[in-house]
Amino acid sequence: MLEALVSSIPSPTAAWQSWKIGPLTIHLYALLILAGIIVAAWWTHVRLTKRGGEPGVVLDVVLWTVPLGIIGARFYHVFTHPHDYFYSGANLWNVFAIWDGGNAIFGSLIGGAVGLWLACALPKHKLRFWSFADALVPGLLLAQAVGRLGNYVNNELFGLPTKMPWGLQISSDNKAFPAGLPSGTLFHPLFLYEIIWNLVGIAVLLLIERKYKPRWGIFFGMYLIWYGVGRSWLESIRIDPSEFSFLGIPTNVWAAFGAIVLGIVIIAVQSHRHHGAEPSVYRRGYEWTPGESADRNRAGEGDQTGQSDVVDSNEPVQGDAEATSRSGS
Known about the structure:
single chain; 329 residues; three-stranded mixed β-sheet
């Protein structure tokens, strides 16, 4: 028994997945997702306020991004795993049972991006979309790492069989357990690999940010490349019998490739458009000043809909030096 414990990773039993408190059922998976959201919001708040963002504005944005992110995550998962939810005798309410697992990261990124765009466009905020996205990067990676612990609790997200000492134990009655393999087969712990990849990514990207101060969405583009590279490998060795594929390549690998390409495009386009310091995390005319009411600060400015969301990098902007000095977080 001792040898088995030191040569493999045991999966949590069903008792870890949920417990009842009176009429309520508490799911650890959901709590871990909530914990990830909280740490991401806190870290983004710290980074955004250092760059001139109004305290509390992150909470307003979260109210848009989190619901749409969850909807996007679930929709993407159900769309790519229809046979798990739509079959003769299926309980269609399971489509909404997010606490049982099955929330796709790429779907959450799409839904969250839509929510962020809507929140940033609100007249009371007028935040720069790319400024917020840049501030979000390390918190997003940390939230994704925390969320992967939920996959571990639910005995999901594992890879091909392995004899490595860190192989993951999966019960043979798990619905994703490959047919024909003997009971006791160990698998690559993809949840652990991604946690490590994300934590390393935080360190690497923050070092890059400290040295080069990438702004205008370029830092977020770097995140997409980093995350896409990691996921393209992890998804290629993942066991997921319900996954669609195209040209023999699973859907999520294509999504990871898409993230890499999108990151490259964002960096190329934004590097071409902007060469100077980012003057503010707010659109021109909507900047927030500490000690001054946001409403008063924007009063009289009118709706600057005719102005661009960005300031031309060749145009002198008062306060650029100050903005640059406080941009590293």
